[in-house]
Q: What sequence folds into this?
């Protein structure tokens, strides 16, 4: 009797959990659905019926062609910028995390806490100082300056996550490597990187997406439209008097595609990165 | 191959809050060329720290470490020309067995054909040729162990250091690997230092054993010396299964003969007539030590004598070839291990036991040092 009650209550609990999951999924996917089906319409069709899918391939082709023409330079800029920022951030954060995980020196504890405090600061607080520093370094209106800001901005979070993972690697691996004659550099690349590969992939995806979606710093720091990343280019589609919803949503869809591809490629590693590594 | 010498070596760890822990205290140890020495002791006795000091993974606080006559203080681990086998094997899970074994040689710039030759030679010796292309995650504990040993062999170092390498294996495999490591030592004729808390491993493998406790060397000698002539109470109690029986009491002289009289137990009086230096210790509190195999139930037809005592049998464990008898003398429990069978019906009864007068030990409880045999 008690078992039956438990089964029944766990059955209801399961239904509740599934209902909650479906609700979240619908809330997440509904805007994407609206974006996708709107990209197949012109303004007339959109105003007539904003919710129902009407697949007009001619209109879709025209919308996507126009969006591509406007966005393509931005996509190239964003791919280059996000790629460089991702590699740079992970490279430097890995070295910092390796140091903090394996060595103690005077004030290293204090230094670590200073890093953590930086993580608590909202990014927008740094906007004026960052632009001011870029101006003094003559790096305003340049992708190099934007890359440096991106790399610096991602350090604290990545180092925080990586330090935890590196500390979990048993000391014997490092000792064995040290006896075998491995330098710190060698230990970093031949031991730490293979062990941390899943979390590096996860962090890579997060950093890439974060940089791809960055809007405020490029908007303030860049003047030359040729250098605009995809996020800033999207505002060019937003007409002053008329909004062409089909083209706008086609551009949004197009700008999401690289992230979608990235997630599909790295999804396995992305999930594994949230787990603790299996260490034998 | 090389000698290893530790001269007055101490290691102090600075813990949080300014706490200082002295893990190794003024250790002097000489390990001869091609010798197999075991560092033995309970957890936290400083044996692994000593091994790490020899390896160069920790810096000595004071003292000197010499390998092959060369002072190694401050020399990085990679330049000491030693190889180490770790407790958890420390095989890199992303590399195959072959790559794990070749790792150290690659880092040292050994050419590819030489690496291949050495890895295959070592694999042949250890019988792991067929698993060279497998990753550690797919290997059994014994195979991992062999690969870890192989990784040490290919380096052809001056000395091998083993840090409890068999402790993760089951009892059967451990016995097998013990024999294999001994064969390997005979074959390589290398200096080996082996850390363990398992006295069976120490007794069966070590040419000499260094028993450690609380960071201090308690005794350094051959297994039989350690067993037969323990220098203090700790060594006597730590070595042997079950541990040595101890009984407080004092020496008395009656009718020109010397006896050990147990404190608070009138019925326990054993002859110590072989103790020439007894006069110095007469009447002082002493600790009598008796190994379990040196106590046995008095045989049928034998009369009680000055080497026998009466005790109440608490319980009997029959092991087949021999029996363990747990007995009470006053508040103290003693254990005997002998081939003499004692009927379980004797449990609860007072029975005569006989001790081997040639195998009695006396310790000074103040200093813990052995005073007899001298």
A:
């Amino acid at each position: 009797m008690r078992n039956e009650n438990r089964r029944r209550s766990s059955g209801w609990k399961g239904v509740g959990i599934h209902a909650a999951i479906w609700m979240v999924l619908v809330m997440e996917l509904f805007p994407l659905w609206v974006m996708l089906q709107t990209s197949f319409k012109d303004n007339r069709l959109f105003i007539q019926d904003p919710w129902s899918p009407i697949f007009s391939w001619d209109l879709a082709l025209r919308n996507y062609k126009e969006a591509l023409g406007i966005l393509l330079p931005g996509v190239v800029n964003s791919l280059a910028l996000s790629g460089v920022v991702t590699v740079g951030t992970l490279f430097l954060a890995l070295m910092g995390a390796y140091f903090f995980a394996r060595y103690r020196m005077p004030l290293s504890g204090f230094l670590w806490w200073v890093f953590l405090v930086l993580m608590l600061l909202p990014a927008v607080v740094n906007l004026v100082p960052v632009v001011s520093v870029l101006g003094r370094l003559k790096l305003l209106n340049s992708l190099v300056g934007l890359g440096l800001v991106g790399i610096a901005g991602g350090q604290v979070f990545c180092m925080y996550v990586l330090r935890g993972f590196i500390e979990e690697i048993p000391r014997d691996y490092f000792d064995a490597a040290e006896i075998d004659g491995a330098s710190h550099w060698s230990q970093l690349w031949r031991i730490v990187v293979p062990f941390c590969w899943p979390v590096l992939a996860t962090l890579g995806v997060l950093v890439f997406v974060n940089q791809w979606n960055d809007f405020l710093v490029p908007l303030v720091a860049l003047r030359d439209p040729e250098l605009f990343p995809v996020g800033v280019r999207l505002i060019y589609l937003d007409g002053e008097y008329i909004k062409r919803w089909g083209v706008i949503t086609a551009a949004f869809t197009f700008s999401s595609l690289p992230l979608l591809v990235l997630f599909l490629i790295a999804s396995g590693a992305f999930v594994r990165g949230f787990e603790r590594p299996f260490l034998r | 191959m090389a000698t290893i010498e530790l001269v007055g070596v101490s290691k102090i760890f600075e813990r949080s809050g300014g706490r200082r822990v002295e893990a190794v205290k003024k250790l002097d140890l000489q390990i001869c060329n091609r010798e197999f020495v075991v560092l033995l002791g309970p957890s936290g006795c400083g044996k692994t720290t000593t091994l790490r000091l020899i390896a160069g993974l920790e810096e000595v606080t004071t003292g000197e470490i010499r390998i092959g006559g060369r002072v190694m203080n401050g020399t990085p681990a990679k330049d000491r020309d030693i190889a180490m086998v770790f407790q958890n094997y420390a095989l890199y899970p992303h590399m195959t067995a072959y790559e794990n074994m070749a790792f150290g040689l690659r880092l040292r710039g050994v050419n590819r054909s030489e690496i291949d030759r050495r890895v295959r030679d070592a694999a042949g010796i250890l019988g792991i040729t067929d698993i060279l292309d497998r990753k550690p995650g797919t290997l059994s504990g014994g195979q991992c162990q062999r690969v870890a040993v192989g990784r040490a062999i290919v380096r052809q170092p001056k000395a091998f250091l083993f840090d409890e390498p068999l402790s993760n294996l089951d009892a059967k495999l451990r016995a097998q690997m013990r024999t294999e490591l001994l064969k390997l030592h005979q074959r390589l004729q290398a200096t080996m230092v082996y850390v363990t808390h398992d006295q069976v491993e120490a007794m069966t493998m070590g040419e000499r054993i260094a028993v450690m406790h609380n960071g201090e060397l308690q005794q350094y000698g051959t297994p039989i010396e350690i067993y037969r002539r323990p220098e203090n109470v700790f060594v006597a109690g730590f070595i042997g299964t079950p541990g040595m029986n101890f009984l407080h009491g004092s020496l008395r002289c009656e009718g020109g003969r010397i006896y050990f009289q147990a404190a608070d137990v009138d019925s326990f009086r054993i002859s110590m007539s072989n103790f020439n230096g007894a006069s110095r210790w007469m009447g002082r509190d002493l600790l009598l030590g008796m190994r379990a195999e040196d106590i046995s139930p008095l045989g049928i037809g034998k009369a009680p004598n000055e080497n026998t005592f009466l005790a109440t049998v608490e319980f009997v464990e029959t092991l087949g070839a021999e029996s363990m008898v747990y007995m009470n003398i006053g508040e103290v429990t003693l254990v005997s291990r002998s081939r003499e069978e004692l009927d379980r019906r004797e449990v609860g009864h007072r029975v005569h036991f006989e001790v081997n007068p040639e195998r009695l030990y006396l310790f000074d409880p103040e200093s813990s040092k052995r005073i007899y045999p001298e």
